[in-house]
């Protein structure tokens, strides 16, 4: 599976997105990550493995503490992929804006003629 596909696959799950959102504010332990979820530590660990395989997080080892941290550069591929669509929609909205202004100008001309 290519990098972008594995990233989207990992992000498809709301629990994994919530874990990433939590890690955006700093590294933390698996136990802390598991607290807001009604699931076992092994279930949270499975989600973390998916995120880790996708390169979205990194896990460390410091004695008994195993901190997890987000890898923000991993989302760059998604951002690059989305950029072309972002430009496409901006261009379409710009054209729509021009068209609406033309319609408004025509309406003003008609209103003056009456």
- In what range is the share of β-strand residues? 5-15%
Percent of residues in helical segments? 55-70%
Main beta sheet strand tally, sense and closure: 3 strands, antiparallel
How many helices? The count is 5
Which homologous superfamily in CATH is the superfamily of one domain? Winged helix-like DNA-binding domain superfamily/Winged helix DNA-binding domain
CA-to-CA gap between the ends?
A: 65 Å
CATH topology of one domain: Arc Repressor Mutant, subunit A
What strand order characterises the main sheet?
1-3-2
* CATH-defined architecture of one domain: Orthogonal Bundle
Stretches where pLDDT falls below 50 for ≥5 residues? Answer: none
Care to count the β-strands? 3
| Radius of gyration from the alpha-carbon trace, in angstroms | 23 Å
Summarize the helix and strand pattern as letters.
HHEHHEEH
Q: Which structural class should the secondary elements be placed in? A: mainly alpha
Name of the CATH first level of one domain = Mainly Alpha
How would you state the average pLDDT, rounded?
Answer: 90
């Amino acid at each position: 599976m290519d990098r972008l596909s594995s990233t989207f696959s990992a992000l498809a799950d709301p629990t994994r997105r919530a874990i990433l959102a939590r890690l955006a504010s700093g590294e933390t332990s698996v136990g802390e990550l598991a607290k807001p979820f009604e699931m076992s530590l092994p279930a949270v660990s499975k989600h973390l493995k998916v995120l880790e395989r996708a390169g979205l997080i990194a896990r460390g080892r410091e004695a008994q503490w195993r901190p997890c941290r987000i890898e923000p550069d991993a989302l760059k591929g998604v951002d690059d992929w989305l950029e072309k669509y972002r430009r496409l929609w901006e261009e379409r909205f710009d054209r729509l804006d021009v068209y609406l202004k033309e319609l408004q100008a025509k309406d003003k001309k008609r209103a003056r003629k009456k």
